[in-house]
Amino acid sequence: MPEIDRMRARLETAGELTGLLCAAWDAFSLLLAACWDCEERAGELFAAFAFASAAAAQGRLVIASAPSRPDGPATQASDVSCAEPDLDKAADGLAGLAGVLGERLLAAARHAGDPGDRAACQDAAAQAAQIYELLAPAE
Amino acid sequence: MTAATFGDVLAEARRHLDAATRLTATRLTATGLTGSAAGRESITAAAGMTGCLALTLSRYLADIAPYDMAEVITSSELSSLMRAAVQAREALQLAAEGLRTGSHGYDTSGRGPADPLTARLAASAAALAACRDLLRTHAITGTGGQWEPRSRWAAVIGSGPVTRAVAAEVARWSKPLAYLTAWLSAASQADAATPAAVTQGLAAATPLLLTASTTLTAALREHPATATDAELLHAVPVSHVPPPRPPSDNETVTALAAGIAVSAARVQALALGTVEQAAWAPELTAESWRWTATGAAIICDISQLMLGLLTERAVLFTGAPAVTAQLRTAADSAAGACARWRVVRAAWQEITTDTRGLTTPVIPDTRDLIIRLGRLAFTEPRWTPIRARRAPPRDPADLAPGPAQAAVVTGAIHHAADTLASLADTDLRAVQAARRADRLYMPTRKLPEYYDVPYRHWKAPASEIAALLDAYQAASAASSRTATDLDALAVTMNAPSRILAAARATTTSTARACTPPAAPSQRDEPVSEPSSQPGLAAPAPPGPVEQAVRDLGAADLIVLLRAQAIDKAARKLLTEARDGCREPGPPGLAEPRRSPAPPARTPARLAAKSFPLGPAPPIADRQPAGGSLPPNPADDQAARQAPARTYVTHGRLHFR
Fold first, then answer.
1. Does B647 contact chain A (CB < 8 Å)?
2. Do B369 and B359 form a contact (C-beta atoms < 8 A)?
């Protein structure tokens, strides 16, 4: 999915905290929309995508509470749907995105000066880790 | 292990009574009860124990018919069964008073009963009282003295069918007690040294006990207690939240189904306790509600899958062709409920609370339920929702090799559906409470631009909350429909869970045959306390109405009882009139009722200025402000019985 690749690249290159929080919001929005979309046809993976979707929604709400998150209207990342017909490939891509998101948020938490930012980054990283755990393939 | 039921304990009580009755088949002279001090003591003790049984029976009737005799006389609205129950109750109380008055002074403390008869009667009386206690575990007495349900069985216990079954049970018990007192009366009369009070009490008890039985039996002809009514009464379990039973690897289908029943019972009990707490309890969070809605959707999805698999085993149900159609209907309902729960989850997407975390007490047991359902449905014995544990569905022949296992699987799905129907209702009420307490927020950036507020979150707009509540209502209706469809299926398949169907049918379609039970203090008021109290009051002399009736002669017992009730009501009226003439106390002595102060809500883990109500300590440190908001006693009880568990660390619920 090109959207996922673009989002990964954006997260990896996000510099200061404000930019990362904006990218994280959009990444969670993408994860939410894609998991929701995959859920519809997930079959045996319904539970994994459903819980991942719930974790993405929570991650986004947590990011919204970060003091350094800039005000302003939300972007439209949530309009993205999962174009990948192969569910395993979709899950792989989403798990990879969640992994990068979690790593970046954890790193940001370590360097955040504001306790509110630190707590938000830690909690959002936990949600990303949950998504990764749900969607990652068997080792 | 399943919880003890009313029927289990009643069978024990009945076993002892039957044994006691068999002992009386022996000739009097062979019993050794006459002509000796020990024999007299045994008769006295047996009379006392029979009195205890009669007293307990009267209390059952007080539970189902909390009226006094004056109401029976004056009210035209009471059913014939209620009238009969009150009259029989009075008869049983009188019998108990006489029997226990005579036996007063016989002290069994510190030693066992003197003879097998008394021992059997004592054991029966204890078990019969325990049966009543079991029923009463399903409600608590509220602050206003009214009964408040603490389980869904409370509605069943108050239903018409159970009322009829209780009346029939009391009628069934009164008769052998009458024969027993007749036998004891003959024994006491054969020995002139037996205390007069014992002899009189026994002689008076027999007709009273027979009257109680015949009065109830006559009324039950008009309101017959069916076998189903009795089955429902006997199936009432003790209100007990079982200890948690986390899944272990390689559980059998039977163990999985049993574990699902345990989780279902725990989720229902714990969810009930969250309703009132939602206004203030920090552990009730939007994140938790979103998670449980997601879990509910997954439960429905897996249930639909399994019901579909069972339809492929039509060969098992050739004797009951309705089963396959019922399975399809239930599968469709489960799919519909899944869709509705997904809408609930979507409605939570932008709404949050002032606290966060997967902290609601129902979450660990909901997790267990999901995992076990998944392990029933899929071939991986260590299945969890994570992708790494994915597996294909079981082969239908593996899931249900025979009708018995098909019934077990259906029972498990039935328990899960029943739980969701209950959870939808309790979560809806909890969210309504959270809304009333202004605990529902949205990120400001998600609000329309005209919301110009200096916080990151602001109160969720009414339209968003309305959509959320609508979604819950639809999920509740869909979940109830699924549960009802599974009720029918469970009955047809004779699944272990079929009693849930009877319970739901009773509480939803049957109007109660009498008013809800009154609080124990009200209901037990007319019944004298056990004879452990020193000095039982001597029987009161006849009042003017009773005396007039006696003077007329040939009045039957019920008429005399009614006359006594009129005298009693008159005495009560005079007492109240006298008390009402007393000077009232000075105003202002009573502690004024204060409305509870809202807990201090301050966002700790959330950013400062995040919520309009200001910063808060972490969840673990938080308490309701100043203890000013007392927890609901039922909730408190449920919480003590079922301590919350958690698998959550750092905001994650671990499935591995």
1. no
2. no
CB contact B453 to A (< 8 Å): no
Residues in contact with B52: Cβ distance below 8 Å, sequence separation at least 6, in sequence order: B96, B100, B121, B122, B125, B129, B530
Tens digits of residue pLDDT in A116-136 = 999 999 999 999 999 999 999
Please give, rounded to a whole number of angstroms, the shortest distance from the CA of B10 to a CA of chain A: 44
Q: List, as one string, the DSSP characters of B151-188.
A: STHHHHHTSHHHHHHHHHHHHHHHHHHHHHHHHHHHHH
SS3 B393: strand
A87 part of contact set with chain B, CB < 8 Å: no
CB distance B181 to B47 below 8 Å:
yes
Token readout for B333 is: 């309902």
Q: Residue ranges of chain B with pLDDT lower than 70?
A: 1-2, 26-35, 102-114, 143-145, 451, 508-541, 554-555, 557, 580-656
Which of A72, A59, A12, A11 minimizes the C-alpha distance to A31?
A59
Q: What is the pLDDT of residues A31-85, one digit of tens each?
A: 999 999 999 888 899 999 999 999 999 999 999 889 888 766 555 454 556 667 7
Q: Which of A28, A39, A44 to mutate to test the interface with B (most CBs of B within 10 A)?
A: A44
Q: Both ends of chain A: CA-CA distance in Å?
A: 22
- Structure tokens that stand for B453 in this block: 């507020």
Reported ipTM: 0.94
Residues 454-493 of chain B whose Cβ lies under 8 A from any Cβ of chain A: 456-457
Report the pLDDT value the prediction gives residue B554, as an integer from 0 to 100: 58
| Contact present, B170 and B84 (Cβ < 8 Å) | no
- The Cα-based distances of B115 to B107, B120, B121 in angstroms read 14, 9, 10
| Rounded-to-integer distance, Cα A59 and Cα A6, Å | 19
Interface check B608 vs A, CB under 8 A: yes
Q: Which residues pair with B141 in a beta bridge?
A: B147
Distance in Å, alpha carbon of B622 to nearest chain A alpha carbon: 18
Q: Which positions in chain B touch A76 (Cβ < 8 Å)? A: none
Q: Hey, what are B550's tokens?
A: 């006696």
CA-based torsion, B460, B466, B467, B470: positive or negative? positive
> What string of H, E and C letters represents the secondary structure of B438-488?
CCCEEEHHHCCCCCCCCCCEEECCHHHHHHHHHHHHHHHHHHHHHHHHHHH
A24–chain B nearest CA distance, Å: 15
Q: Compute and round to an integer the Cα radius of gyration of chain A.
A: 14
Cβ neighbours of B342 in A, within 8 Å: 39, 50
Count of residues for chain A?
A: 139
> CA B621 → CA B281, B283, B590, B602, B604, distances in Å?
12, 11, 34, 12, 11
**Per-residue model confidence (pLDDT) at position B612:** 64
Answer yes or no: is pLDDT of A114 > 50: yes
Pair of tokens at residue A112:
């955040």
Altogether, the residues listed in chain B come to a count of 656
Task: Please state, in angstroms and as integers, the Cα–Cα distance from residue A129 to each residue in A88, B265, B603, B650, B651, following that order.
Answer: 18, 31, 24, 10, 10
The pLDDT, as a whole number, for residue B640 is 38
| Cα–Cα distance list, A112 to A106, A118, B325, B443, B604 (Å) | 10, 5, 60, 21, 16
User: Among B386, B394, B654, which would you mutate to test the A interface (most chain A Cβ atoms within 10 Å of its Cβ)?
Assistant: B386
